[in-house]
Every structure is written in structure tokens, then in C-alpha cells.
Amino acid sequence: MNFKEKIENLRTEKLLKRFPDNDLEWVNKFWYGSSVQYKKGGSAPGIEKNIVDYIKLAGHQAEKRAVMGREVQEPDVRTSLGTIVGKKTYIPSTGTKGSADISAVVFGIAVLIEVKMGKDRQSEHQKKYEDAINKAGGFYFIAHDEDDFIWKFEELLKHPKMVLMSSF
Q1: Which tens digits make up the pLDDT trace of 87-106?
Q2: What is the pLDDT at residue 56?
Q3: What is the average pLDDT score of the chain?
Q4: Nearest of 123, 144, 140, 153 to residue 47 by alpha carbon
Q5: Mean pLDDT of 112-137
Q6: Nearest CA to 38 among 13, 66, 6, 63?
Q7: Residues 54 and 3 both lie in one domain
Q8: CA torsion sign, 28 to 34 to 40 to 41?
Q9: Does any domain span residue 80?
Q10: How many structural domains comprise the chain?
């Protein structure tokens, strides 16, 4: 089963649990257009959103992480000679350089997922971050699209540590 089928099934199950007096026909008739149907993520942020949704629907915790600084505009100063436009400065993030796009906890274990599309490759900071996560006992992988994610995620769930933790 591919990502589209799996996420639509999870969304349908969620609706059936939310409305237990109804059946699959009711879900398809009244909810299929907006709540169940999968929308392909054509960009990295779209793929990240779909992955986070899937992990949450599967009963785990997941969130999108944004580790970037921010631009600060100093205020304009008015003088008798005119207005001096305040300069823009950049404040770096306090987050760890190279952090993964998605942070999840699956059966109590940290799972970090980096989304890379096309010719995009890991930076040196991202490679160091991956090593740190793996050394700490967590899992890190790169997903190129939703179907690549689902294949790697299902393989991860077969890992002995995951199998052991899933029984707790």
C-alpha cells in the first residue's frame, strides 16, 4: 500500500471513531472531500506536512521544526534633515545547526526526519546532527517524498528496538 492509501485509511478510521454511530458509506458521502482525501505535497513543506499528519494519525507525536534565525528591522529615525531608515540585522537561531525538518516520538523513541527533494543534499551540520542522533540511540532518516517516507517508516517499525518498545 502506498502513502496515499495509508493516510486515507487512517483518516477514515479517525472519522469512524469520532462518529461511531455511522458507517463507511456515511464517511464517504459526507466527509470524503475534505477530511479524508490525500493532497500530494508538491514541495518540501507540503511533504513535511503530510508526513507529520501521518505520524500523528498513526498514534505517535510529530512536529515540524523550523530552525532558522530572524530578521530584525531597526526603527526609522526622523531628523531635521529627513528620515534615516533603520538597518536590517539578522539574529541567528538558538536551535541546533543541522536539526532535522521533522521531530517525532514513536513508541517513546526519538525519530528525526529530514526531507530532501531533487538535487538538495545534506549539509555538513546535518550530517553531524544525524551522527549525534544515532549515537544517542534515536533514529534519523532522509525522505525524498511521501512514498519514500512510508517505506522507510515501515522498515523502522520492524527494528528490534521499535518492536520491543511497541509492546509497552
Answers
A1: 777 777 777 888 999 999 99
A2: 94
A3: 85
A4: 144
A5: 94
A6: 6
A7: no
A8: negative
A9: no
A10: 2
- What own/partner pairs with CB < 8 Å and gap ≥ 24 does 147-154 have? 147/2, 147/3, 149/3, 149/47, 149/51, 149/54, 149/113, 150/2, 150/3, 150/6, 150/54, 153/54, 153/55
Comparing CA positions, the residue from 37, 36, 40, 58 lying closest to residue 48 is 40
The reply to whether 8 falls in a domain is yes
What are 7's three cell numbers? 493516510
Q: Which residues are bridge partners to 75 per DSSP?
A: none
For residue 120, give the C-alpha cell: 538538495
- 50 with 29, same domain: the answer is no
The more confidently predicted of residues 45 and 39 is 45
pLDDT over threshold 70, residue 32: no
Cell of 136: 544517542
Q: Quick one: pLDDT at residue 20?
A: 76
